[in-house]
């Protein structure tokens, strides 16, 4: 006989499922969505294909047709990935504990059944004794009945407590199961109206952040409906206003932390929280947040008011960077705003999977990151068309940024591209041409005389061996020590690090000072090789060093 819960009638059954398998399929669907997104980016580029003639027109037409089809497929893959992962999380949170209670409930039910039968027997014995004349026997059987009933009732309380737990877990799992079915059937836990669904389709089909921004502003009555049904999309859709994205992403982060177990993933989420709670005026904003779409948790935090800023700066990390470094990068961002002055806002952009050491020579991470960075920079231009846009990229981050910014002749509207300790720009003729065509952005670069890592990175990477310091038109600035405008000492960069003592972006260093001056005036603030400058290892009088930038001429 199958047992059922006393209050809600749930069967005592083992809930079948495998959260690991569900998460695996979720990751596969996410990867499909990412690859379709990459295809969409490529298709969007085809819209701008230069030239005339039948072949070019055909390519543009095909690109337009494909662009209209891809958003629905991307949305479906994202939906399946999200549903599978949420159901996997619900299975771990509710179904597994329910399954763990089954043996306890069966044991408790058997014990209650035994004691209930014993109480029945004791009652019959007491009833039988009551018809006799033996008072002692009557008293003894009555005491036995009282004791048996007490034991039975205690067992029933214990069984009821277990049933209550089971009903809670089973009910929550049942709700999650129904929500998953509803989401699959209706495209979301909340069924969208036809108008909202049409708007969501149009937002996903839009070919630029400008179009997304326009569509969003034209439909204020549908905004909250779409936010409620698809926060994971709205929180990361370039062209949606920053304050909307920040509110949505902060809420998603809080929700995830309520159920996320201890482990590396939770550590990353908590690192984001620490960065957001570190203070600032205005408080930091989580303008992008994707906990599941990449191998790493990706996020971007804005310091300062992006909507009113006249200088929008973006810090891009390099090799081995991840969101657990956000707090330190945030301090550098706040210091940069303070140094530049009113009107400065700085974004710390951890929007791509940064490479490990063995991946650094390859371009795969840069290619994936460049697509995301390109979209972000276009959103900055769409939402703040009058602001100067400055990109400050460290190490492999400069490789990624060069690939993104150099993808278009107009440099995506970037004003200044500042590379510190660059791992090398891509060896792509189109990228190099677009970065040196005499149009914005102006390129600035520095490499410490004690930075062997960047030099080795360029020398060992066939995909990104180009030294930015040697590109035509680049303004090279020092990071080897100097003095500021007031005569104060500015320490040198003593290695390859971005942050910390002796690092490129450490507040108070010569490199950091020059970055601030470039943003404010367009020129470095110190003289090359001037007062306070020190010699590093690469200045030694060794005949096998070809120049001050390179171990060999690469």
Automatic annotation (TrEMBL):
Residues 292-456 form the DUF1023 domain. Gene3D superfamilies: alpha/beta hydrolase (3.40.50.1820). GO terms for molecular function: hydrolase activity. The keyword Hydrolase applies. It comes from the Bacteria. Transmembrane segments: none annotated. Pfam families: Abhydrolase_8 (PF06259). InterPro entries: AB_hydrolase_fold, DUF1023. Keywords: Hydrolase. The keyword Cell membrane does not apply. This is Alpha/beta hydrolase family protein.
